[in-house]
Amino acid sequence: MLPSSLLFTRRRRDKIIPVYAHLNQENLEVAGLLIQTYGDYVGKRKGELNEVVSGLEDTGYDYRYVRGLSTLLDRRCRLKPKSAIYPIKARRIVFKTSHEKGFPTTPEARRAVLNQAAGELEITIEELEESLYADLEDELILEDFEPLNPEALVKQYNLSLSQTLLFYSTELAFTTIGNWQRIFRQIKWLGLIYTIMRSNSGYEVRVDGPASLFKLNRRYGTSLAKLLPAIVQNRKWRVKAKILRRKGDRRLLDLELNSEKHGGIMQTIETPEKAEIYDSQVEHDFAKRFRVLKTGWTLTREPEPIPVGRRVMIPDFGFRKNNMMVYLEVAGFWTPRYLKEKIRKLQQLGDIDMIVAANRDLACQKLDKIGEKLNVIYYKRRIPLRPILVHLKAREKRLVREQKRRLRAEPLPIQKSFVDARELATELGVLEEAVKQALMEREFPEYTRMGDLLVKKTKLKEIQEKLENRLNSGDLDLVEASRIVEDAGGRRTSNILDALGYSIEWRGIDPHSTKIRRKEKI
Amino acid sequence: MVLLRYDKGSLLIQGEVGTPYGQWDHRVGAFRAMAIYYREVLAYLERSRMIYRDEAANPPPVPSLSCRVELRPYQKTALDAWFDAGGRGVIVLPTAAGKTFVALKAIEMLNVATLVVVPTLDLLDQWRKLLSNQFETEVGAYGGGDDRLEPLTVSTYDSAYIRAEQLGDRFMFIIFDEVHHLPAPSYSQIAEMYIAPYRMGLTATYEREDGGHYDLPRLVGGPVYQLEVDALAGKHLSPYTHEKILVDLTPDEQKLYKREYDFFANYLRRKRVVLRSPEDFRRFIMRTGSDPEAREALLARNKALKTALNSEAKIKGLGEFLDVYGQEKILIFTRYNQLVYRISRRFLIPAVTYQTPREERKEILEKFKAGEYRAVVTSQVLDEGVDVPDASIGFILSGTGSSREYIQRLGRILRKRRGKQAKLIEIVARETVETRISQRRHR
């Protein structure tokens, strides 16, 4: 976070946005230059470094950017006074002496006072002069500086800039995927209040504070700013805030940030896996084993909050595929009160698909009382994958059936020369399996079927003619054949070659040394 | 049944009825009211004969408090007026007229958990010492690294604001020293988020230039007693004289001043910018964010001003005065730290700025009071509240145009002592903008 005098924003009508430092060459150069300068001044006076830095402000760069970066770099410095004796002690003796001898108003008198004080301290008069105010910021010696790379510095600057603007916020709304437990813990710890609303892109959480009820209030701005790092650490997020810039200003400005536009320029933890924080080894182990499997389901830790009455519940895991969401709540350690609260919450869930993994060794029998809505699986040391995969598979099957029914009711949009089940599934927003089955059920007289691929007969003919022409003028290898097929807009060359009655003769593993031949007609 | 609770800086009123002071908070499903209305909410519930349980107040147990303070007649009148106003309101007395004693007497009479809110760390130390001496009890403190709660606690405005949620239900009486700080957007929330039914404001200058004092009646209560400096000078305060000494900038400074100031003036003329009011100036400052030329002009103006304010000629002038008044107790005020340290190095006078370590600051002030140091040079940190009874000479080497700052600085040397003749000497650079700044403070 930066001093507010370095806040650099742009306003357009009712919108406000920080002027971010993009990761372009010039900005990275300034950052690199500063980092290097700080490094070069290790061992010298901080005041000298400050002068150089402020000199850089006058060379055409924006002073707010330069000072913002140096504010961040200052925090990576270790400063130490350089003095023969403890400066406070030096002053104590000097002032005592000047009191006894009277304030010196001539250079000679001054020297006399210092001389006597230096004698008492058993140092030279020069050492005394140097020690006298060696603990003022400008006089301190830069003892050590912890460098970082320019890109990291610029990203840190951008994050700090956003946080500094949020100091002026009256409320903040966000939505994101992942990290929820941590965000909510922070909301609670900072004494903020949230409300949850369902929006078309998931759950949106609005945060402000108790006193926000009475008047527009920037009291919570600093706390709201503290939420930002945990949110932007995720891969996908959106943040909206209301900004009250100046006290005389009675207009609220909108700040809108999102991961697509601003994610790349702000400081984050490198990989989403690193950003995940696990409560227990059991959970960490489960996530690792599940991800290895490549089920097509995306596993997210603490995916989103589910409103339960006025409170929220944050399941430990979410499995997402297509528009399906299945939650997994891991119940490891129980206290009777925790258990009661959890059961009460789970009972209110409504039509949420949730699996509860409960530790067999701990008193979990009571979970059975919740009823059939929940799938409870038990574990001892590891959460078993099988029952979860079975559950997901069944859920997927149900959806495939349902989607197939829906696809049956309407004509399939089949016009292209090549129709690929996977592509069509994405286009229709349904599962690939549902499309495959729907394609199998119907006849398409204009098309030839090649596994999951439908190819228009006219197109196939066109390709065949091209291949024939080429074959007549000499040998043809797979690489070139592929080019011919792909130039015609096709793919999966080997399937097509096969369907057209060609075979590929391999000599080793290099596709350049293959030979395409007409199959003998039997 | 209505349940009254304190929740993060406000009152939660749970039950089937609301009160005129709260509003429905859908986020938690209860009525919520500002903590400042605690007294009114209770009165409403009583008047309405409602059954309620009050869990909002959570003060620490208080020992029996008594002090040895004897009030002067005008102090007694002030205290009576405050009690007549229902234990709320602001007492306006000149610095050194003993506002603190009025507060001590009020604490003794109420005998409830009390928080004193002060603007500076020096005042924090001073109040703490005073309270523990007078009431012979441990005194809590928040600010400057301290955080300890006691039935009598002193806090800085900053800490009282930051910790409002945590401290707001712990005190029944809150005293705002130098209450003119309170009506700022952030600090006013201290008044709003603490339940304390008894509230007292103390100040020498009730009015704020921005009109903020209009909010004081809501936050602490209106002025209940008011006395001007001149009414007390001579009898309860020292008689004082004021001198203004004009000095010439050195030739080099003059050249630098002229060059920089002309650059600034040129810009204003060219762009037809008029700077008449503080409002105008604020607008100009805002302009410097987007207009590099404006920024350069501003920097030139600041440089010119600093040249005038930190002039070598002033230091020379001060040196001449030190030869004359060297045996008196002296306070030297400047606007910028840079000048503080130049003076400190030159004349080997102890310095107090915001950079001075807190322990050393305490030591310097104690020695100054005890007569082990005869002078202290300071920027703006000692403007308020520090009592140095026998300081008799004040030098203003530079300052802002604020008349409050001037009155406060004057107050530092006005505490009554037999035979004392206080003297305030302003040293001003001739033919610079500073002469205008100096005029403004005497409005």
Could you describe the 3D structure shown?
The complex is a heterodimer of chains A (522) and B (443). Chain A is an alpha+beta fold. Chain A has five domains: 4-81 and 142-154, no CATH class; 87-133; 167-275, no CATH class; 281-394, 3-Layer(aba) Sandwich (Trna Endonuclease, Chain: A, domain 1), CATH 3.40.1350; 417-522, no CATH class. Chain A has 19 helices and 21 strands. In chain A, the strands form seven sheets. A five-stranded antiparallel sheet of chain A has the order 6-7-5-8-9. Chain A has a five-stranded mixed sheet with strand order 10-13-14-15-16, with helices on one face. In chain A, strands 17-19-18 form a three-stranded antiparallel sheet. In chain A, helix 13 (336-347) links the parallel strand 14 (324-331) and strand 15. In chain A, helix 1 (25-40) packs across helix 3, helix 4 crosses helix 5 (107-121) and helix 5 packs across helix 6 (125-132). The longest helix of chain A is centred in the last third of the chain and has 23 residues, at 386-408. The model of chain A has no long low-confidence stretch (mean pLDDT 84). Chain B has 443 residues and is an alpha/beta fold. Chain B folds into four domains: 2-54, MutS, DNA mismatch repair protein, domain I (3-Layer(aba) Sandwich), CATH 3.40.1170; 73-232, 3-Layer(aba) Sandwich (Rossmann fold); 240-248 and 311-441, P-loop containing nucleotide triphosphate hydrolases (Rossmann fold), CATH 3.40.50.300; 251-309, no CATH class. Chain B contains 17 helices and 19 strands. Chain B has helices at residues 38-47, 73-84, 99-110, 121-135, 157-162, 164-167, 188-193, 216-219, 229-232, 251-271, 278-287, 292-309, 312-325, 337-347, 358-370, 403-411, 433-441, and strands at residues 2-7, 10-14, 22-25, 30-34, 52-54, 88-92, 114-118, 140-143, 146-148, 152-156, 173-177, 198-203, 223-226, 240-247, 330-333, 351-352, 375-378, 393-396, 422-429. In chain B, the strands form three sheets. Chain B has an eight-stranded mixed sheet with strand order 9-8-10-7-11-12-6-13. A six-stranded parallel sheet of chain B has the order 14-19-18-15-17-16, sandwiched between helices. In chain B, helix 2 (73-84) packs across helix 3 (99-110). Chain B is globular, with a radius of gyration of 25 Å. Chain B starts with a strand and ends with a helix. Classes of the chains: A alpha+beta (522), B alpha/beta (443). The interface between A and B is large, with 37 and 42 residues.
